[in-house]
Write a sequence for this structure.
């Protein structure tokens, strides 16, 4: 029996050309029988300009994301993937683990995944890849800084009916939360920080697609009527293993989402509502960041859409988002307008977004306008 390693398969593909090579959407796949490996990545070069009503304006040019990945299989029904990012996260460029998992898809219409991924499937906007967004940056409902779980270490089971009109997923993870009274920032323990609160998270979602399965990608290239509506929820509880930040430590968080999407005749729209109920470990008195007496209901709305003025080439986009918390003086709102030019759909595109923010961080009169311009190359 011939034994061919994955390394040999790749080497043969690159040197002798004897292995079938297939260009994928966002990756190149080398295959030798049942064994295969896919290589790919994304480059997002971004310019960001900020002009607050009070204070000086600022701008910067940086790599928002630099994300190579490798995905492959050497056994039928099994595959693995790892992906890391060396682009800018918050204020620093740092290496961080993104996808890093093993997956079994030998069951009929059911997949089982173990590792670091979106194992607790919450927020349609977060589950939509950053490379397939209409606005340059995600809105509140898809931002891990504001209650939506990011990738986490754990177990996920997902599936669909035979016609994919109904899809579902459920997961459990040991999840980190970066203690900060001004945010509700879930962070993966694969990139463990010494001050992360640690705890167990579990949740599930269901999505219904009445006109056929709608992929998690914004923009209408196919110009076919598609729609979806989904609900999800999760619960995170502090396990008391790492509470060292005093009043900033979070005790528990419950999240709920309802979302929907529509695609038709070049028009694309997505809407989502999130609600998070969070409590701190200590009983606090008074207002502290998003909290009032150590508790908050963090509420978010977002709607965004676009129209392909030139099919598959030029799209105008707009969005509106709102966030409120018990500790805010006023609702924080953002209004966005922009345009996208597609050289090769989402693989190669240029985006521009103008975002007008009012009452940033819930502070009355704290307003700022921002400009985002981003060039993307996916391979």
């Amino acid at each position: 029996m011939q034994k061919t390693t994955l390394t040999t398969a790749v080497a043969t593909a690159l040197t002798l050309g004897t292995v079938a090579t297939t260009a994928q959407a966002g990756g190149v796949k080398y295959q030798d029988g049942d064994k295969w490996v896919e290589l790919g990545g994304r480059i997002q070069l971004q310019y960001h300009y900020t002009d607050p009503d009070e204070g000086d304006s600022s701008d910067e040019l940086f790599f928002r994301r630099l994300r190579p990945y490798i995905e492959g299989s050497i056994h039928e029904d099994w595959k693995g993937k790892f992906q890391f990012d060396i682009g800018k996260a918050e204020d620093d460029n740092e290496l961080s683990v993104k996808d890093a998992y093993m997956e079994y898809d030998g069951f009929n219409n059911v997949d089982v995944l173990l590792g670091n991924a979106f194992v607790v499937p919450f927020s349609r906007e977060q589950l939509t890849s950053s490379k397939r967004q209409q606005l340059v940056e995600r809105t509140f409902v898809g931002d891990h800084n504001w209650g939506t779980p990011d990738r986490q270490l754990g177990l996920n089971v997902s599936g669909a009916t035979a016609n994919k009109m109904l899809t579902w997923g459920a997961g459990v993870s040991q999840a980190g939360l970066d203690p900060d009274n001004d945010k509700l920032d879930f962070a993966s323990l694969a990139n463990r920080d010494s001050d992360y609160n640690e705890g167990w998270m579990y949740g599930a979602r269901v999505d219904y697609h009445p006109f056929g399965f709608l992929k998690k990608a914004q923009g209408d290239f196919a110009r076919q009527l598609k729609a979806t509506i989904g609900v999800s929820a999760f619960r995170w509880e502090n396990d008391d293993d790492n509470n060292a930040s005093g009043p900033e430590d979070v005790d528990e968080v419950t999240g709920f989402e309802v979302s929907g999407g529509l695609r038709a005749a070049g028009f694309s729209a997505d809407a989502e509502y999130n609600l998070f109920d969070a409590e701190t470990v200590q009983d606090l008195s008074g207002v502290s960041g998003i909290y009032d007496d150590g508790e908050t209901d963090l509420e978010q709305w977002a709607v965004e859409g676009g129209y392909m003025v030139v099919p598959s080439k030029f799209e105008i986009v707009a969005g509106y988002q709102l966030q409120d918390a018990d500790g805010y003086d006023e609702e924080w709102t953002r209004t966005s307008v922009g345009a996208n030019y597609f050289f090769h759909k989402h693989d190669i595109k240029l985006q521009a977004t103008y975002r007008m923010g009012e009452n940033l961080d819930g502070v009355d009169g704290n307003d700022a306008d921002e400009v985002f311009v981003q060039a993307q190359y996916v391979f």
Observations:
- The chain has two helices and 23 strands.
- Confidence is low (pLDDT under 50) at residues 1-19.
- The helical segments are 6-15, 124-127.
- The chain has one domain: 39-378.
